[in-house]
Amino acid sequence: MSKTLVAYFSATDTTARAAERLAKAIGADLHEIRPKVPYTKKDLNWTDPRSRSTLEMKDKSSRPEIEGRVENMDQYDTIYVGFPIWWYVAPTIINTFLESYDLSGKTVIPFQYQDFYVRGFYTTYQIFCDGIASVKNLNGKWGGIDKQGKTVIPFEYDALGTFLEGLAFACKDGKYGVINTQNNVVVPFEHTRITSYSNGLAVAVKDGRAFCIDRYGKEVPGSDTISQESYFPAGLESSLTMTPDEIITVIENGKYGFARIGCTQPLPQKGEMADWAYEEVIQAIQHDLVPSDLQNQYYANITRGDFAAIVVQLLEVVSGDSIEDIVLEDTGKTLEELALAYPFSDTNSWDVVAANALGVINGRGEGIFDPYSAISCQDAAALLMRMGKYMGKTDVDTSGETFADNASVASYAQEAVAYVKALGVMNGISETTFSPFDTYTRQQAYITMDRLLSVLEGESAGGEMTANQIFNQCSPAVCYMEVYDAAGQAIGTGSAFAVEANWSPITM
After folding, report:
1. Number of folded domains in the chain?
2. Which domain holds residue 478?
């Protein structure tokens, strides 16, 4: 079920062509706003004060009748409306269309731009990335708008890429640089070419030399092994994809080519996130729990789609297997087979396919996954519990684990909140308050996922080792010990240092 509609009125097919291109690019439904009485060439003669279009535009109450309606308008949450400009405004038939439906709560975006930048993944396309659409105005300048149509990046650029990882290439006066979502210059406008960012890196060309730059605009040492002659000739059209230590795909004179880049993404700097989060986030990155393309915008709310990506990352780290092998063993089906029967219409992410197939993340219903919506704290607790239980952590005593605001926690998350608290994986905003409806940021997600990893590996979330782990590491110990559970059953053996009651080592 599509959630986006492109509706248009076109008297001469010019707007129709633009609408068709837009709908195809973003995978939206298309609807023509057809006048009950079609406009003739005579009707459109703006020089004739008695022509139909002239009279309609002079009459503010004019509402030309429309033939046909949009069926099930309720299913759409975003509506693009296209129309020609008559007397510097929209034709009055557009008023007829807009007033024919209850559009409250919907995002309505009028056509007022010449071009737009699309981010594409197989059959899924995005115009809004990081909440911003890069568009070209009628004066030929590029800027950015939000989903309400408000200008958030001024129209002052000759080119503006889509925002990925909070950054976008831009061109001014023939030179390329990089800006962030606040329109701050990250990379100065002194390059002949810069690609979009992927996994924290972009390819830049300056003074005839191609090299990688990180998200701070610094050159990555050794990355200039990408030769200009091989990969950035004069006829290069674009760089399509880039993944550190893997493959960069480029186009040379209409032909695809491949190269390998050997560079490592730098660790984030302290100022990118809260001080209290820095050490644990760094630890999560070092434990390979954070995909490279998510190592940015740490204060941003993590989305359902992004959470699926870190779920997959954790599964691979804990098991030591690829997600393909994990899914095959668990479901008896390959990812390709599951994708053929894909349950969602609004995403085709393989991370979502895997996480959903394993029962860790579910959809919203009616074929909708809603990959770009934010996760609340109680949502995060539920997802973390499903992850923990899937990985075998089912023996968790949740009795007595409550917060003062536990009554406000949704029924589906009651057990989960107690579960994550008992494990020490996720805490509230204080010792007594969970605040279930607060949004859940990227830095919080990475920290709690790393704590869950510690639990799954046999450690407590605070980093304390279990008795067996201590025994296994105490090879020079001076005495032998047997470990029993509360029922008196032997559960393991090991060696340990002999200690007194005050935990001071005994000298022997």
Report:
1. 3
2. 465-508
- Contact (CB, 8 A) for 79 and 110: no
32 inside domain: yes
Same domain, 381 and 489: no
Q: Is residue 175 part of a domain?
A: no
In the block, residue with structure tokens 């030591």: 320
Residue 449 main-chain phi, psi, to 5 deg: -65, -40
Most distant pair of Cα atoms in the chain: their distance: 112
3-state secondary structure (DSSP) of residue 211: strand
Name residue 255's beta-bridge partners: 252
Q: Residue 14's domain is classified under what CATH number?
A: 3.40.50.360
Same domain, 283 and 427: yes
Asked if the model's pLDDT at residue 121 lies above 80, the reply is no
The reported pTM is 0.55
Span 413-470, pLDDT tens digits = 999 999 999 888 988 887 788 999 998 999 999 999 999 998 888 744 444 444 444 4
Please check whether residue 237 lies inside any domain of the structure: no
Could you read off the pLDDT of 88-108 as tens digits, one per residue?
A: 678 999 999 999 998 888 888
Domain assignment present for residue 89? The answer is yes
Q: Give whole-number Cα distances, 421 to 12, 184, 398, 450, in Å.
A: 63, 40, 8, 15
Strands (E), 137-288: 142-145, 151-157, 159-160, 167-172, 175-180, 185-191, 193-194, 201-206, 209-214, 236-242, 247-252, 255-260
Same domain, 302 and 438: yes
Residue 404 DSSP code: T
Q: Are 494 and 474 in contact (CB under 8 A)?
A: yes
- How far apart, in whole angstroms, are the C-alpha atoms of residue 116 and residue 144? 10
Which residues neighbour 54 within 8 Å (Cβ) at sequence distance 6 or greater?
A: 45, 46, 48
CA 467, CA 446: separation in Å to the nearest integer? Answer: 27
* Residues 200, 261: Cα–Cα separation, whole Å: 13
For residues 134 and 115, which has the higher predicted lDDT (pLDDT)?
Answer: 134
Amino acid at 432: T
For 31-47, what is the mean pLDDT?
91
* Pair (349, 487) in one structural domain: no
Task: Point out the domain boundary residue: 112, 140, 171.
Answer: 112
Nearest to residue 196, comparing CAs of 293, 297, 122, 266?
A: 293
pLDDT of 486 above 80: no
In this structure, the answer to whether residues 383 and 488 fall within a common structural domain is no
Of the CA atoms within 13 Å of residue 413, those in its CB half-sphere come to 24
What is the per-residue pLDDT across 159-212, written as a single tens digit (0 to 9) for each?
898 888 889 999 999 999 999 999 999 999 999 888 888 777 787 888 877 777
Q: 45-59 pLDDT, tens per residue?
A: 888 888 999 999 989
